[in-house]
Write a structure and sequence with these properties.
Elements: H1 8-12, H2 30-33, E1 52-57, E2 69-74, E3 91-92, E4 104-108, H3 114-120, E5 124-126, E6 131-135, E7 143-149, E8 153-160, E9 162-163, E10 169-171, E11 176-179, E12 193-200, H4 213-221, E13 249-252, H5 254-259, E14 267-270, E15 279-282, E16 287-295, E17 299-306, E18 311-318, E19 320-321, E20 328-329, E21 334-338, E22 346-352, E23 355-357, H6 360-363, E24 366-367
Parallel strand pairs: 13-24
Antiparallel strand pairs: 1-2, 3-4, 4-12, 5-11, 6-7, 6-10, 7-8, 8-12, 9-11, 13-14, 14-22, 15-21, 16-17, 16-20, 17-18, 18-22, 19-21, 22-23
Amino acid sequence: MPRLSFRLLAAFSAAAGVLLIACAAGAVLVYDRLAPGSPGESAPPPADPTLAIAAVEVDPPAGEREPVAAPVTFDPTGTYAFPIAGDPADWVWTHLHWDGTHAADIEAHPALSYSEFVDATNSVLVAVTNGIAVNYSGSVGGQGYMLHGDDGLDYYYAHMAEQWVPDGARVAAGEPLGIVGNTGNTAQFIEPHLHLAIGPRDSLWTQQPAVNAAEWIRTHFGLSWDERPAHAIPFDEPQGSPVQHPDLAVVMPFEAATESGLAEPSVELGFAAAPPSVQDVVAPLSGTVNVIRWTAHYGTRIQITNDAAQTTVVISRVDDWLVRDGEAVHAGQVIGHWDPAVRPRLHYMIFQNGVIIDPTPTLGLDRDT
């Protein structure tokens, strides 16, 4: 099964803006409509892995981010550039997109420190080849471009934080386009990343990407994708609280969160009295993990998905994590830590059969209301 990421939740959710979950499962944006690749299409032989590095001066419009000198990685021919300036080793992607299509979500490497993560997720996006940059922005994909490459392919960039070239501008390989981001209804809740889809001219408007982006990157730059093992995890349902302390209580009930109009209603857990010391965060069910780090809205989030039960739990505002994307965990396993003295409320959500449900009956906790 392709990557179980927070994006998978979108497949469970019909609500726009739901979670980090998925940059849009079932959504009507281009990369979610794309069809499997052409059966007769074959990739060219791998290129020489010796890559050229060139320093490009970034010159965004006045009033936007401070320009920086960014190294750009080119293929041996100089025709193609890795789409993100800086060291490609700072990024990971899987062979298939979370929904099984040929797009790639290029995300900051899980081994990066916080400061390295911040630097990476403020990186400059560059044109992968010579062509025309057409503005292609929307509510799901956020800010983005459809780059009509001179090679006859289209390259779709989604979720950008800033766009630096005007609609219809001609750009050269390695020329700055803007900044990595997480714009869009669902992506706003997840880590900044580049969603890259590739297909023949004008095909991406109505079809799924015919070109596998991960294989395209390997062909031109000798860089491979992150292999994540498949797990056969038995059916399991959430049971118990993600933090097991006798004084823990529901301090914001699900009904109140729902009535407030939140796109992601959750319960909030906390303490009525002086908070205790750092608490272990445990898995409420067995499943596959995805960690969403240091988000602006909810801090760090740990998601666990049990495919057999079509159920995902999301624990937000944890302080650190002991698991990584794609790892299998069992119910009751310690997966992170939470310091209630620093973040008084822990957010907890359950998605089940495509719907956000009230997790309260599974918790076994009192309400402090």
